[in-house]
Write a structure and sequence with these properties.
heterotrimer; A alpha+beta (326); B mainly alpha (635); C mainly alpha (203); B: mainly alpha; two-stranded antiparallel ribbon; C: 203 residues; mainly alpha
Chain lengths: 326, 635, 203
């Protein structure tokens, strides 16, 4: 009876746990060689460390239960000494493996990468695709697209407090620190919509500062990149854009192709092409857009975006407009 | 140099009840409120410290219960981000600064003078002062929280978030100043412990006869002295940045955000060993008593304590592996962080070896020690994992690391502490805690702790970061979070059960004699609870386990005055008696000085002039404190 | 625990002594160590900022040597009467101790007054940049120690002129003198760091 209970409990835990393992934000679901290396290292460490734990607990239980294995003090000293030696050796091996992975992950040469400059803000990600050709650079927010099998070079800094860039399926995290320029390099070799989240407490809405990293084949990526380069698509009706430019929106947001050039909030030129809004907080749907612009504070209390006075017609027009910014 | 006649009678001129009663009168605390506020008896101060620390444990635990209620299901609206951020800040800050370190120091304040065979702690008025300063610091923090101006930047308050630009108002200042309170208090106690251990040991208690808990507290006290100034300097710089416009952490004017992290973690890593080493000292005492043999590897355990102490100063950068520091430097810290597992492992092996050759008696104390070994090793091993730079970049700032540090702090410090409470409760109160309730307490705590914290390892690997007030349903973290929440509720209940045991046993517990466990160290050589003078006659020690090697009783060092507070000061290494030093009588000055210090600290959050005026007033009160009250203090 | 073989009679022991035989000396040493650690860390922060900034000092010339060197000289000169005070204390000579404490009181006030001029001569405010901040912080840290020790010395001087001027008070005089040594030595280190390191860095 006890054993059944135990088995059920274990199964339950595994069932409960397994949902996230295949998740888009799981460190054990690698989508690139670096993440794979990290996952492998994790499993190896886990195996060794778990074995050590079992050995220690077994020794403890044995020490308590055994009746007929007295060990002389002298021999016990030798055994303890040997165990200390074994501990040291295991630690040496683990340290060596750690160094190996570390130098692979952080010692990479730069090889014709896609270079992206990420700036952390409270509570969104400013993304700038760099290029040696200035006309090939553009700015977007909260969603990164990368081509498969090409080195991605991420330059990381912050405009306010410390944030941390973390997309577990491709690489370990790296902090975005004001006054500091950090950089990571990685490759993605499995397509997918991968999720990342800020991993350094940054204030009120740290919990809602996520991003998507979309890994796609080079052709699709090139198409996306080219579409991001151009200014905003001319809207179906001019009403929404008029409202946008008339309200305070333009003080914070940029929409290329319009006079709106604010730099305080995310670039909205291709807002409608993204999968989520408010840094991964809501899926991009008409309802979500409307709800967000009418009252950002109810979705993200403390966010820096104020609620703006909008009539229902204005809301509808704006929603149409923003949705059309593909 | 001596005025022999004025010091008589001596304790070799009286005997029996008359000697006990006169000594109790000399060393006792006057009754009533004034007596209670002016006591310098380390046992009374120590008890207060312990109770206060457990009150803070309770408050911090309640914060955690509310946090877990919020995280039980995705998208929960029980608590919004502002309150949640305050809650996790209060939880961490209270646990680390107001519970974990103070409770270990509290046990040291109570036990160390008894274990080394002296009448009071060194600098007893300073001891009283440090308790009051600690209390006032804790009150500052919690009153602020009740008034909704509690800090909300996490227990390590990274800049620039905690700086003047991104944390307007007084919240972060309250956090920073509370640190000043608790660090002043802890540093004072550390000095007292070192001096008590080095200079006030009973005759014959050479360095290699000191009980392991005392060794642990000696090493811990050195750690406190070298580590805590770092956080005091850091928090002072933060207050200055916020209050008077310095730029220590402002990168735009030559400052550096990472400077904060270096200063904080230079303190922060030794801090966790300041919490853990005393627990290992408790474990050594408990294991020996309930294995009914001397601890295996005394010398190894002492060397392990010292090695851990030294090494702990070389690990701090492992908290900064994700900040982009040069990889070569970081890898040195991987090596040192891995290395510290060796002396820690050595201690575990010695304890298991002690149990191997002993005849275990399964009291609740021993159960908690066994629970400690099983859980702490998990935490230590996950520590080996996070010591690796690449692995840490995946699990840092996620629930994996939350699991790791709770396993080492709860498994490694709270379980031994609870074992220590069951062990020393009879000595402190004169009654034994109920073993029946104790067994229930242990199993509930042990099981619920693992249910609550083990799944966090998985959550971290699945991508759940720390310090999030909510998470989205699509992430698939809901089930595990619910399990964690239920486990944490049950874990909280185990503390309620523990409190019930304490209250019940204070009235109805079995009355304890001087040595209910048949233990070997000196605190068990006097009554339970001990008389005000601790020992009617100071014992002379000839072995590491004096009560076991001299079951018929210990010889005494006699000749101390009966009507004047006097204790023996001995030489550092060989504990040969050297002086008869006067010990202070009860005094109200420590409370007055602590009050003025507290007011000065709090006021200086609002105006820098408070430092000047406060300094003057505190200076005057310190003069009153140290000015001799009568000529007998000049001897 | 009564009359057993192996007992010791401590009734003949003195009630006070000098140096490391006394608990107070160890307490003083403990506080010296922890305050020294504080200095070391503040200096560490100074050097850290100096290394990470392209120019150091930031935006100004190194601080003027005039008043600070006077402070240094006055502290160095005070070492001798301080040493004499220790000797008088050990000899328990009340008249000499009184004389030496009065001298040390004056010897402590002089650098304090000079320190005021030293602060005023600083060429940067604490709120201008991180260099100004750490400069004022370290100087302030040392000044706090100076003020408390001079205060201590003044109180002890007054005490030795009362009926309490005897017995273990002589040991207190020695402890105070040891703490003064710490104030002087810590200043020498701080002086080099604040006034000479920036000069070496700019060459």
């Amino acid at each position: 009876m006890r054993r059944r209970l135990l088995a059920t409990g274990v199964l339950f835990v595994f069932a409960a746990a397994s949902g996230g393992c295949r998740g888009a934000q799981s460190a054990l679901n690698p989508h690139g060689p670096e993440a794979r290396e990290l996952a492998w290292l994790f499993w190896f460490f886990l195996a060794i460390l778990a074995a050590v734990w079992f050995a220690v607990v077994a020794a403890l239980l044995f020490a308590l239960i055994r009746r007929r294995f007295p060990v002389r003090e002298h021999s016990m000293t030798r055994i303890v000494g040997a165990l200390v030696g074994a501990t040291a050796i295991i630690l040496l091996v683990l340290t060596g493996l750690s160094y190996r992975t570390q130098s692979q992950l952080y010692g990479q040469e730069v090889t014709a990468p896609v270079t992206i400059h990420l700036t952390g803000h409270q509570w969104w990600w400013e993304i700038e695709y760099e290029s040696s050709n200035p006309s090939q650079t553009f700015t977007t927010a909260n969603e990164i697209h990368v081509p498969l099998n090409r080195q991605i070079r991420l330059k990381l800094t912050s405009s306010d407090v410390i944030h941390s860039f973390w997309v577990p399926t491709v690489f370990g995290k790296m902090d975005l620190i004001p006054g500091v320029k950090n950089e990571i390099r990685f490759t993605v070799d499995k397509p997918g919509v991968l999720r990342g989240q800020c991993a350094e407490f940054c204030g009120f809405q740290h919990a809602h500062m996520s991003l998507l990293l979309i890994a796609e084949d080079p052709a699709t990526f090139a198409k996306w990149r080219n579409s991001q380069l151009r200014s905003r698509l001319p809207p179906a009706s001019s009403e929404g854009e008029k409202i946008f430019l008339g309200k305070p929106c333009a003080t914070c947001h940029t929409i290329r192709g319009t006079p709106a050039g604010g730099r305080f909030g995310p670039d909205l030129t291709h807002f409608g092409s993204r999968k989520t809004i408010a840094a991964g907080t809501l899926l991009l749907t008409r309802g979500a857009i409307a709800g967000w612009i009418v009252d950002p504070q109810s979705t993200k209390p403390g966010a820096n975006m104020p609620a703006v006075d909008l009539t229902p017609q204005e809301t509808l027009a704006l929603t149409d407009y923003l949705e059309g910014l593909r | 140099m001596n005025a022999n006649d004025k010091d008589r009678p001596r304790d070799n001129e009286l005997a029996g009840r008359e000697l006990e009663e006169r000594l109790a009168r000399t060393w006792g605390t006057p009754r009533g409120i004034l007596g209670a506020l002016s006591t310098v008896d380390h046992k009374i101060v120590g008890r207060r410290y312990i109770v206060t620390a457990f009150v803070f444990l309770c408050l911090a635990g309640l914060s955690a219960v509310v946090m877990r209620a919020q995280l039980a299901v995705p998208g929960n609206t029980l608590v919004g981000p502002d309150r949640y951020n305050q809650l996790f800040t209060m939880h961490g800050t209270t646990m680390m600064f107001l519970f974990a370190v103070p409770v270990m120091e509290a046990f040291a304040v109570y036990l160390v003078p008894l274990m080394v065979g002296t009448r009071n702690i060194a600098f007893p008025r300073l001891n009283a002062f440090s308790y009051w300063v600690y209390l006032f610091g804790g009150l500052l923090l919690w009153v602020a929280f009740m008034l909704n101006i509690g800090p909300d930047v996490g227990w390590f308050a990274y800049v620039p978030l905690s700086g003047p630009e991104y944390s307007p108002g007084k919240r972060a200042d309250i956090w920073a100043q509370m640190i000043t309170f608790t660090e002043v208090s802890a540093l004072a106690v550390a000095v007292e412990i070192i001096v008590t251990v080095l200079k006030q040991r009973a005759p014959g208690m050479t360095l290699d006869r000191i009980p392991l808990f005392v060794w642990a507290m000696l090493v811990t006290s050195f750690l406190i002295i070298f580590a805590m100034p770092a956080v005091m300097i850091a928090s002072t710089m933060l207050i200055l940045d916020r209050l008077v416009g310095t730029h220590m952490f402002n990168p735009a004017e030559g400052g550096d955000a990472l400077l904060w992290q270096h200063l904080f973690w230079f303190f922060g890593h030794p801090e966790v060993y300041i919490i853990f080493l005393p627990a290992t000292g408790m474990v050594s005492m408990i294991v020996a008593t309930f294995a009914q043999r001397e601890v295996f590897g005394y010398l190894a355990l002492v060397l392990a304590l010292i090695a851990v102490g030294f090494l702990s100063f070389g690990l701090w950068v492992h908290h900064m592996f994700a900040t982009g520091l040069p990889q070569l430097g970081a890898s040195l810290f991987t090596a040192s962080s891995m290395m510290i597992a060796i002396p820690n492992g050595l201690q575990i092996f010695c304890w298991i070896a002690t149990l191997w050759d002993g005849r275990p008696r399964y009291t609740t104390s021993l159960l908690f020690v066994l629970g400690f070994i099983v859980t702490f090793v998990i935490g230590g091993l996950s520590g080996v994992l996070v010591a690796s730079v690449p692995l840490d970049t995946q699990v840092h700032d996620t629930y994996f690391v939350v699991a790791h540090f709770h396993y080492v702090l709860i498994g490694g410090a709270v379980f031994p502490l609870l074992g220590g409470v069951y062990y020393w409760f009879p000595k402190i109160t004169g009654r034994l805690l109920s073993e029946r309730i104790g067994k229930w307490h242990f199993w509930l705590a042990f099981v619920s702790f693992n249910v609550a914290f083990f799944p966090m390892h998985i959550l971290g690997l699945e991508g759940m970061p720390r310090r999030v007030y909510t998470y989205q349903a699509e992430m698939g973290w809901g089930n595990l979070n619910l399990i964690v929440t239920l486990g944490s509720f049950a874990f909280f209940l185990s503390f309620v059960l523990f409190l019930c045991n304490c209250i019940y046993s204070l009235r109805r517990g079995l009355v304890a004699g001087p040595n209910p466990w048949n233990a070997s160290s000196l605190e068990w050589a006097t009554s339970s609870p001990p008389p005000p003078q601790n020992f009617t006659l100071i014992p002379v020690v000839r072995s590491r386990d004096p009560l076991w090697s001299s079951p018929e009783g210990l010889p005494a060092a006699t000749g101390l005055s009966v009507d004047r507070r006097e204790l023996i000061v001995s030489t550092v290494v060989d504990a040969e008696p050297d002086l008869r030093e006067a010990s202070p009588d009860p005094s109200i000055w420590p409370l007055a000085a602590a009050g003025a210090t507290g007011i000065a600290f709090v006021a200086s959050i609002f105006t820098p002039w408070a430092v000047v005026w406060g300094g003057i007033i505190v200076g005057i009160l310190f003069i009153g404190w140290f000015w001799p009250k009568s000529e007998k203090e000049d001897k | 625990m009564s009359e057993r073989p192996g007992g010791i009679d401590v009734s003949g022991l003195p009630t006070y002594a000098f140096g490391s035989r006394m608990t107070m000396a160890w307490g003083t040493a403990g506080f010296i160590v922890l305050e020294g650690t504080g200095f070391a860390l503040a200096i560490g922060a100074y050097l850290y900022l100096a290394v990470i900034n392209p120019a150091w000092p930031i935006g100004v010339a190194p601080p003027s040597l005039f008043w600070s060197t006077l402070v240094t000289l006055s502290l160095l000169i005070s070492v001798w009467p301080n040493h004499v005070a220790k000797r008088s204390a050990r000899n328990e000579n009340l008249a000499l101790v009184r004389r030496d404490l009065v001298i040390m009181s004056i010897a402590g006030v002089i650098p304090l007054v000079l320190r005021i001029f030293e602060f005023r001569a600083l060429n940067i405010g604490w709120d201008q940049n991180a260099y100004g901040s750490i400069l004022w912080i370290i100087l302030g840290l040392h000044t706090t120690h100076l003020i408390t020790d001079v205060g201590d010395t003044l109180v002890l001087t007054a005490l030795m002129f009362t009926r309490h001027g005897k017995g273990r008070r002589f040991s207190d005089v020695e402890d105070n003198a040891v703490y003064w040594d710490f104030v002087v030595i810590s200043w020498l280190v701080v002086y080099i760091v604040l006034y000479w390191v920036p000069r070496w860095l700019t060459t």
